[in-house]
Every structure is written in C-alpha cells, then in structure tokens.
Design goal:
It is built from 18 helices and 12 strands. With 510 residues, the protein is α+β, with helices and mostly antiparallel strands. The strands form 3 sheets. Strands 1, 2, 3, 5, 6, 7 and 10 form a 7-stranded mixed sheet that branches. Strands 4-9-8 form a 3-stranded antiparallel sheet, with no helix packed on it. It has a two-stranded antiparallel sheet with strand order 11-12. Helix 12 packs antiparallel against helix 13. The radius of gyration is 28 Å and the shape is globular.
Length: 510
C-alpha cells in the first residue's frame, strides 16, 4: 500500500500509532475515553497529532501553546503568538467526519508552569471548525498533494476538565514526563522509516522492467534492450543489494526494539540508526532509478519521482534525521551510553567504524566544552557520518547473520559502502583496497548477480503495486490519449496564409 498511496499510509500511521497509541494507555484507567478510542480505531473520526509549532520543531519541549487551568476546573487553550501555531498535521474540515486531535500544550496552574501535557481537543464537528480553532491549509507538498497539511491556531479554546490526559500535578522530572507523553513518536519514526523498503522495491522494479523493455538500435540495426548496458545493470543491482540488506536490518531492529527490558536510551539510538540508514539510502537509490528511466522517470505518474518526493518528508517526520544523529553521536562520544558492539569486528565496515569513532574521540579530546564553538565546528559535521558508519556496519552484520541474502548482493553492498569511504581504505595498505581492486570486486559481484535479475524482481513482490503507465504499451497510450490536447486542422495552410498576408504589401519583382 505504501507504494500505491503513500499519503494514505501517513494518515493511517498518525491515526493508529500517534493518536490511538497515545490515548490507549490513559483509556485503561479512564472508561470515559474508551468510546472515543473505539471511534478512532474504527476510523469513525479523524485523528490528528499536534505537537510541533512553527517556531519549535525538534525543540518541542520549548513549545509555547498554553493550557491554563481555570477556577472551574476547565482549561483555556491558547496560542500566544502566530509562531506558536501548530505546524503541518492536517486539521481542516472533512465532510462527513469529525476531527479530534491530541494537542500538546504547556500546563499552567495558578501561574506555575507544570510542563508539557497532552490534551484531547476536537478541531471540527458536524462539518464546521470548533470555536476558537483556526486551520490554514498549506500549499501542496510534491508527492503528497492529497494531504491537507495545515497550520493550526488556538484562540481561547475552552476545554473540559476531562481533556487533560494524565494528572495536573507537577512531575518529578519534566524531561522524563515529556518523553513519556510523546513515546509514540519514536515508534512512528521507525514505522515511517520502514516505508523506505516498499517504496524502493517498487521503484527498482519499475526501473528494471523499463530497462528490459526499452530498446535502442545497434550499429547492426538490431533492437538491443538498454538492460544490456552496464550503466543500467550496476545501479539496479545495487538497489536490489540494498533492499536485501535493508530487509534483514529492519527485522533485526524490530526484534531488538521490542525486546522486553531494553533500555529507553538504546531504543532511541536504534530509532536514529535505522532512520539514518533506511531513509537516506533509499533516497539516493530512488534518484538513480528515476534517472535510469530517462525523461519518463521524471514524471509523477510513473511513480518513482512521486515516491521519492513523498519519502523525502520521512527525513524530517518524527524527528529531523540530521539532528537525531547529532544527539546520538554526541552522547556516544561523551560516553553517556553505548550501542551493541560489532559482532564481526574484523569486517571492513567494522574497521572503518572503529577508526572513524576514534578520529571523532581524538577531536573531542581537544575540546573542553561540548557546547562550545569548537565543538560546533569540529564535531557536529562528523555526527551524521559517524551514525551512518554505525548503521552500515550493523546492517551488514544483520544481513550476514540472516543467511537469506544472496552472496553477490551482500558483497556488492559491502563494496559499494567501502567505495563511499574510499579515501580511508586507500590509506590502509594492509587491507589492499585500492581503487582498481574495488572496481574488480564490484565487477565480480555485479556479474554474479545480473543473471538473477528476474528472480530478484519476482521475490520483491512489487509488481502488484506498480502502476507506472510507461511499462505497458496499452496503458501508456491510453494515458497519453487522456491528456489535455491542442491541435490544428491544417497547420501548413495556416502558415502559408500568414506568410502571404505578411508580404502582400510588397510589390513583386517577378
């Protein structure tokens, strides 16, 4: 479904994971919430999750929306300035459905700030916005035009005392309480990241089938499929190699994340690592798949460009991947916690990770304060590359241990990753990873994998979700015939008349 209607999947994720998932723990001790939870689970009411604001994204702990406890026990929900408006989640009227939201606001009790709390707030009922709620529809985002992204402002919205989820007592630890309130966000981050697998799978299938069907005329006047060219084979086989590794890594991360007793900090690390790997790697490969389809790959109706543009939002959704990497890498470097150690410490990718981590630690040893300008200049730019190095190593180990990834694909994934770090490997003479050696290894892996292309395509199970008209002649012709058309009855005659009229005032010399 992700590859057919990604915006619908995004709405489902928000409805069930963020909204129902946040509400469910409170409904266990509050029977009054259960009817609403049932309506959300049955999709009888639309759910929205309003956390971030125009001025506060990843620093949502500093959000400005307030919910002031009134003497009556009710609450006054208010956006103190426009920059405090909730940013991006849909909030407008949808005909035939009410819309309810989990709104995060700063609880004020007799002037005392008691931290960020979730509130149940109806945004619209019976086809009309609720009093004090303003929703501004944002322009469409390429690839997800169907989503009604909105900016939502609250003006003295009166909420019943039952709107607050949890107690209005001051928490023992504001940070822990905030993280507890938004615990579904990290799960959502993994869920959004996992969408990279079906979207890349469909994109790669489209590029592969297009390459098998599209032909060029050779010097001997024969029709030759463009798949026969190495420039088509390498990126497509690379994409299938990445997909095989992604699937193994995803299964392992899910098993680790759901393991009973796992520390919350390790969970946060896993979320960052899997997002940095799945989303960014799939983005790079989908761009290649679109390019390998030539001009037709640029158009949204042929799916690849649409999927790639929509999934770009996953780099930001449920936490900007760059900032998440900065947080994780910084905490790893200063020793706040550790991630699982390499299972294959002598592998090429584990060696690179170890060396890069040591380089970061060496730079850090010369910096006294992790909030200094020196830290900003010398460590921050290394954070994302460090997390990516960790993710490549963990993904490789997961694929290796799974025993389900074809050896040529696993080898190609490893070689492709090594090429990304070619400068470091070239310095390690004992590893014998010169540019020439890498080219030879890549050639061997690609040659071994190419004969199995159709099997990779079939095993991906992507064909059922492919809708690109360009892959079927009849579909493409029908699509083109359905486009807006402009034509002339006799263009040559029109041009002749224009020429005659333009020069009719000039005497003939003949």
């Amino acid at each position: 479904m992700c590859a057919v209607d990604l915006p619908a999947v995004i709405l489902l994720s928000m409805q069930y994971n963020l909204v129902a998932g946040t509400l469910a723990p409170y409904a266990e001790s509050r029977p009054d919430l259960r009817p609403l939870l049932d309506r959300i689970l049955n999709y009888e009411v639309l759910g929205s999750f309003l956390l971030t604001e125009i001025a506060h994204g990843l620093d949502a702990k500093n959000l400005e929306t307030t919910a002031r406890l009134l003497p009556s026990g009710d609450y006054d929900l208010h956006s103190p300035r426009f920059e405090a408006s909730k940013f991006m989640p849909p909030s407008g009227v949808v005909e035939g459905l009410d819309r309810v939201a989990i709104v995060f606001a700063r609880l004020l009790v007799q002037g005392e700030d008691r931290g960020i709390r979730p509130f149940v707030v109806y945004l619209s009922k019976n086809g009309r916005m609720c009093k004090g709620v303003t929703s501004r529809l944002m322009p469409g985002r390429p690839g997800s035009e169907a989503l009604d992204h909105s900016i939502t402002t609250f003006t003295r919205v009166r909420l019943p005392r039952t709107a607050l989820l949890g107690s209005h007592d001051r928490p023992a630890n504001d940070r822990d309480n905030f993280l507890s309130c938004i615990h579904r966000v990290s799960i959502g981050s993994i869920a959004v990241s996992l969408m990279s697998i079906p979207t890349l799978s469909v994109s790669t299938f489209i590029a592969a089938k297009y390459s098998l069907q599209r032909t060029v005329t050779s010097n001997s006047s024969e029709q030759v499929p463009i798949w026969s060219f190495r420039t088509q084979q390498i990126p497509i086989i690379r994409a299938y190699a990445l997909l095989a590794v992604m699937k193994s890594f995803a299964r392992e991360v899910i098993a680790m994340y759901t393991r009973p007793g796992i520390d919350s900090t390790v969970k946060s690390a896993l979320v960052c690592i899997v997002k940095a790997f799945l989303v960014q790697q799939s983005q790079d490969r989908m761009l290649e798949m679109a390019e390998r389809c030539g001009a037709q790959g640029l158009f949204l109706h042929n799916q690849i460009a649409s999927l790639q543009l929509c999934m770009r939002g996953a780099l930001i959704a449920e936490g900007d991947v760059l900032v998440l990497c900065i947080r994780l890498a910084s905490e790893l470097l200063i020793g706040r916690y550790e991630i699982p150690v390499p299972r294959c410490p002598q592998s090429f990718l584990a060696r690179y990770e170890k060396a890069f981590f040591a380089l970061c630690k060496e730079n850090l040893s010369e910096i006294k304060d992790h909030r200094s300008e020196q830290f900003n200049q010398q460590i921050l730019p290394l954070c994302r590359p460090l997390v990516e190095a960790i993710s490549h190593r963990m993904a490789y180990e997961a694929a290796l241990d799974s025993g389900t990834v074809d050896r040529p694909l696993l080898d190609l994934y490893e070689i492709t990753t090594i090429c990304n770090y070619g400068a470091w490997f070239a310095e390690q003479k004992e590893l014998d990873m010169s540019a020439k050696k890498l080219m030879e290894l890549e050639e061997m892996a690609v040659s071994a994998a190419v004969p199995h292309l159709k099997r990779y395509m079939e095993e991906s199970e992507a064909e059922a979700y492919v809708q690109a008209p360009m892959l079927v002649r009849e579909n493409n012709e029908a699509f083109i015939n359905g486009l807006e058309c402009s034509s002339g009855d006799d263009l040559q005659g029109v041009l002749a008349d224009m020429y005659k009229n333009a020069f009719s005032h000039i005497p003939s010399r003949l």
